[in-house]
Write the structure tokens for this entry.
Amino acid sequence: MNLEHRISSFSQLGNQILEEISRPRIEGEETDFQALLIKAQQHNPWFTQQHISLAFDNILSMLQQDKLEEWVGNYPNHQWNDSDLRVGVIMAGNIPLVGFHDFLSVLISGKYFIGKLSSNDMFLLPFLANMLIEIEPHFKNKIYFENHILKDFDAVIATGSNNSSRYFDYYFGKYPHIIRHNRNSVALLTGLETKEEKHDLAKDVFQYFGLGCRNVSKLMLPFGYDIPSLLDEFQYFDNIQQHNKYLNNYEYNKSLFLINKMPHFDNGFLLLVENPNIASPISVLHYEFYYPPLDDEIKRLSIANENIQCVLSNEKSVKNAVKFGESQSPSLMEYADNEDVMMFLEHLKSN
């Protein structure tokens, strides 16, 4: 199966997913796809129907034929012939289908995909894999899901926490590998953001309950920034407090702040606290003030690059800044931890 055939198969997969999403739901007559979405949420309450839909929307954007062709066109020196190399992929489960890009990359490149699913996200990707196999049966011998320890692989892509990444380093260090650890995203504000940009920033904070590495967990604010006015712009996400798990986190963190008499801002479902750390707990957003000009802050963010997935800003001097509201809609060329997976897969040819 050549590259053009693989691209066509994934494009058809996108069309089939869109057809399933668009199918009306009839009470008592759910399709297998509709039952899958319910099953995924029942298994993991963080995977709400809204957030699963958001994940599928992002995948549909990837699976457009012209975008797939443009993506592989960025690697003009490789033909991506069918290969017998087997790539083990250990997936995270913090947000729905977070490992789909790795799944796509391995198979588009012609390699074998050996997947180890997170216990938090066990059903969505195998279902899509079966849809893909129905479209092109050749993929049946290219896709495996391991229930236990990965075995019989030539290279590894592993995503996990800082603790698990140390284990991955030890266990997979002798193989060609990409090992990812915890990352978070930062928003650098100038004080000149429009009302619409502040609304879009709220998406970067609240989508997926802030569980993704591309979610904003920290704000860099110019000294004297009016924080209450920003929280007012976040109010249209107030329905997030209807989710029990999120609300429990909010109430727990609020209690800690009150008991410890820690100064903070509170809009009823989000807590803002001044803290130099990039990572913040669920329902908490860290912030830090800076003094203009931005040069020192941009340099400091650059130094912390290993802990930052992306920086959101409308400031043109911030290299590779992501626009507000677009953190959870990465393009095919925006790789996790900024590690080019396709380049990694390309270099496996010589191993």
In short: The mean pLDDT is 93.
